Amino acid sequence: MRKKYIFLIGLSLAVLSACSSQESTAEENTEKVIQQLQDEEYQQIEQEYFSEALQEKYPAAELQLSWEANRGTALNEINNMEAAAKEDKTTVSGEVIFDDATVKVKTKWNEEEKLESLKIERPYEESALPDSAIEEEITIEAEEGYPLSGKLTLPDDGEGPFPAVVLVQGSGPSDMDEAIYSYKPFQDIAYGLAENGIAVLRYDKRTFTHGAKMVEDLGSALSVKEETIDDAVEAARLLQADDRILPDQVYIGGHSLGGMLAPRIDEEADTAGMILLAGSPRSLWEILYDQQLDLVPDNLSDEAKEQVKEQAEAFKELAESFQDMPSEEAMEYDLGGMSGYYLQEMDQYDVGQIALDSDKPILVLQGEADFQVTPEKDFTAWQSIFENDPQVTLKSYPDLNHIFTLSQGENKGSVQEYQIPGHVDEEVITDISNWIIEHNN
């Protein structure tokens, strides 16, 4: 019994020794990779260290984009390196300290000393209200019993009245910043526009604040009118009645679903024009159908992929049938918390035609790396509708995703990339500001 006990201790020590050696090698290799990143040896890193799987999903060009987007100006030190071995993998985490930035690097190494994962990101930096702006609390209440908290961001130069934008969120419950994963796009836009002399009103979405009450009051009769449109119209009218705002220079800025609904909002609120951020003139069900097919994980079995396709086709067939149903019958279908009537109601409006008939200035913006609302199907649809319309400006941005943040990393093109902290690209905010100022002159 004694000999067996000693043997087990010896085995345990041998395993610990192997782990320690594995961790040490992984840590050293990680430091080499960081130094090569700083020396811009991206191709060499890919060839020398990347596993075949990582080479496919994260080629040298993408690695370069991620590093150069996050690094600072001068590297001071590599800090807080920690290695942990688990089974046949070793994960190393550390910080790269620059004069003006801190970058987190996380690597995962296999037994062959090849990288299976390399993540580069800056810690999320909370935006501060600019010195040139002020902000006040405001309440939107389009319908009694549904008050919504909001914020009005104003330029702090005392030279109003100012042009203004009402920001309208995408699908699902959302706070006034449209916070999603590591992003707060509406806060970014509000602060950026205010710095450029433009007021911005943003507010919590009704389903964010009163989701349970809406289900109780409306049930399956809930539509985008109660969820989004009524509150946006009320927000625009509040601005139009504010002495600090130019009443004829209030714009609707809609993102995603908000961009799809902006033409309907404008019809009721009679705004100065629309800013459509990753919106679409297509039916919502068409976009949902495409997303089901486009976002199938590669690691699914062929059988599982076929099942997803069958489900997507069944959804498409059902969604198309809603248009020929009585509303009461469409309400009986539950599509993951959304009734068939929700889709049916939206399909009663041709938002592309409504936008065209508005005869107002429209700015259409699209990220070319957007995998949710795509440049190939949705942006080109806008281009076709607004062909040769002098009042419409269309622009797309390489490497920006659905949130108009840099699309980067080994999970580029998937929801996982949204975990990388980021802010709305400055070029987008500048383009919106310049477009509004141009139409204000």
TrEMBL record:
DUF3887 domain segment(s): 31-118
Alphabetized SUPFAM superfamilies for the sequence: alpha/beta-Hydrolases (SSF53474)
Membrane-spanning segments: none
Signal peptide bounds: 1-26
Alphabetized Pfam families for the sequence: Abhydrolase_6, DUF3887
Occurrences of domain AB hydrolase-1 (ranges): 165-406
Sorted UniProt keywords: Hydrolase, Signal
Cited PANTHER family: ESTERASE ESTD (PTHR43265)
Protein name: Alpha/beta fold hydrolase
Species per Swiss-Prot/TrEMBL record: Oceanobacillus neutriphilus
